[in-house]
Amino acid sequence: MARFPEALAEMTCACELDPLSLVAGTGLGRVLDFSGRHDDAIEQYRRTLAIDTHAEAHFDLAMALAHVGRLAEALSAGSTAAALAPDSIVYAENVAYIRAMMGSRSEAEEFLRQLHERSETSSVSPFLQAHLLLALGRIDDAFERIHEALRLRAPEVVYLLVGPDCRPLRTDPRFEGIRQRLAFPQ
Known about the structure:
Elements: H1 4-17, H2 22-34, H3 38-51, H4 55-67, H5 71-84, H6 89-101, H7 105-119, H8 126-135, H9 139-151, H10 167-170, H11 175-182
Helix pairs in contact: 1-2, 2-3, 2-4, 3-4, 4-5, 4-6, 5-6, 6-7, 6-8, 7-8, 8-9
């Protein structure tokens, strides 16, 4: 809902209550990243990873690094997350997303094809496909997948209003219809 000051206060409190919590530390980093404080988020993820390795913290670190254009570092962090959780399609998609941002379009297109094939036999969120399509600059296709994610009530649609990667969608006039469908309180 983009209530970043409140979210920051809550996550800061969670970290104060349990300073060794990897989940709270990673959550604080995500609030910082989504609120546009990418460098602070990177520092927070690194503090969390200094406590212990945590796939989610590596994944979120990769996203924050990508948000500031540090793509080689992002790829390293994303690859670490994928290695720590090899069954995570989300972490694997993130690596493909970063590779697409680095110009490896063919690898990203191949992963997109694999996501499509996998979606025919198991549950794959259309949001993942939309995310990768955004990295490839295929905005019209991304909108199509977002509409499918909305139809299926994919939980990741909550990121549409706040995720830095979703900015190209939010600046498109077609997004207003999506915003209305989400019906989040203002």
